[in-house]
Each structure stands twice: as structure tokens, then as C-alpha cells.
């Protein structure tokens, strides 16, 4: 890595890779310098292309207590960065900015409210981070997790890369429920779960779990179309604007190859 970038970047090594489908995978990277972050924040990853860093932000899946950083990545075939990331295997290296960023989930989860997480595919990343952290805190007897419902939408069930982990957590947290929903069940033989896009089933599960003005919070992460529709649904349900937090993976109206991937 060029020395004139060492004040901004660290070279990190991929130590684990898991493929969930032809265009979805996770990586864990080992970093040599302290990287203190809160659940819900993101790291900026990149590669050097034509002598310049090409980078994008990626929400962190791992909890702050894990030794390595984990990321859930979707291949955008005509994207700027992911075609460079996709071939990388264990032992390859990436550039990573030394400081995390992001204000999503900054204030933590109020213990006296019900929290509904709504994600599309890789948008589960910040929610997985906070759930892993809650798991560790609960195991040490430091917190009693509040009521949480996680609804994750995808086209097909193979895109639920963390479904097994979420199912395990639902057994450990009495007040945690994981609801995966597929939008193309006709192409997903054997699927018997929820059907519909995440935003289409949002109101159903918000009502069922007791999300009410002053009693619930909704967190939206992923596709900007889902976020826009999801926010409108919950505002019509009476929630205040400040009770709905969001993390868009690229600006609404722009293709993902021109923003974060």
C-alpha cells in the first residue's frame, strides 16, 4: 500500500469467505489496528484501480467485540467496485479506511419500546451487528434485550445468508422474532414462509407486534425504494418521523453502480 495513504487506510486481509449464492457472499477481514465502532456503523472498503483507491461503504455485520470485521456483499455486475471484490479469496487484501462512520442506531434501543427492523438482503448487516452485541451482553447478564422483530425481504430464500443465525438467536431471546419474506415464491420451490416484499408485509407485522405511536420504533435498511415506501407506510400508521430511522444503501433514483454497492 502506498505510504502517502497510510494515514487514511489500512491494508486488511480476507481470512474467511462464505458464498450464499452466485451473487452474494460474506467476508471476514483481519485488521492490525484498533477499529472501534458501534453496531450499525459502516467501514469503507476498497481496492486500488489504475493507481487510485476505488472505495464504497459497507455496513459491519460483526459485533464490536469480535476480533475480525465481517461484511455481507452483493455483486452488482455493472457496478464500480463489487466486480473487483467478487474474485477475492482468503489471503487477498483490501484497503479499509481507519475510521468507521455512520449514525444509524446511534442512540441504541430503548428498553421500553418494541423495535421493528426491516431489511432487504444485505441490509440485515447492521441489525446482525446489534443482535450479536445484545447476545454477548445478555450472556454476561448486563442487559435484558427489548422486544425486537426483524423482517428481511429478498427475491429468493438463498439470499437469507444469516437465516440460521437469526433462527438461533430467536431461541435465545424470548422477545426476538425473525421473519424472512420472499417476493418471488414461484421460483423458490419448497418455500413455506412469508410471501411479499418487505415493505408490503411491514404494516402487518408492525400491527401484530404492537408498534404504536410512542411505543415503537422502526428501522429501515437497504434498497431506497423499500425505505421510501416503508417510511410512508409507518407515517400513515401514526408514527412520528423521529420514530423511523433509515440507512439507504444508495441514493433514491440512482443506480447502485454510481453510489454504494
Layout of strands and helices, then pairs:
Layout: E1 9-21, E2 24-30, E3 42-49, E4 52-59, E5 69-74, H1 82-85, E6 93-97, E7 114-120, H2 125-139, E8 148-154, H3 163-172, E9 176-182, E10 194-195, H4 198-209, E11 216-222, H5 224-236, E12 244-248
Parallel strand pairs: 7-8, 7-11, 8-9, 9-10, 11-12
Antiparallel strand pairs: 1-2, 1-6, 2-5, 3-4, 3-6
Question: Which key terms come to mind for this protein?
Answer:
Elongation Factor Tu (Ef-tu), domain 3, six-stranded antiparallel β-sheet, 261 residues, 2 domains, six-stranded parallel β-sheet, alpha/beta, Rossmann fold
**Number of spatially distinct domains:** 2
Tell the overall outline.
globular
Number of strands: 12
CATH class of the largest domain: Alpha Beta
Helix content: 10-25%
CATH level-four homologous superfamily name of the largest domain: Nucleotide-binding domain of ferredoxin-NADP reductase (FNR) module
Which stretches are low in confidence, meaning pLDDT under 50 for 5 or more residues running? Answer: 257-261
CATH A-level architecture of the largest domain = 3-Layer(aba) Sandwich
Figure out the total of helices.
5
Q: Output the helix-strand order.
A: EEEEEHEEHEHEEHEHE
Structural class determined from secondary elements? alpha/beta
In this structure, how is the largest beta sheet organized?
6 strands, antiparallel
Rg, alpha carbons: 18 Å
Spatial ordering of strands, largest sheet: 4-3-6-1-2-5
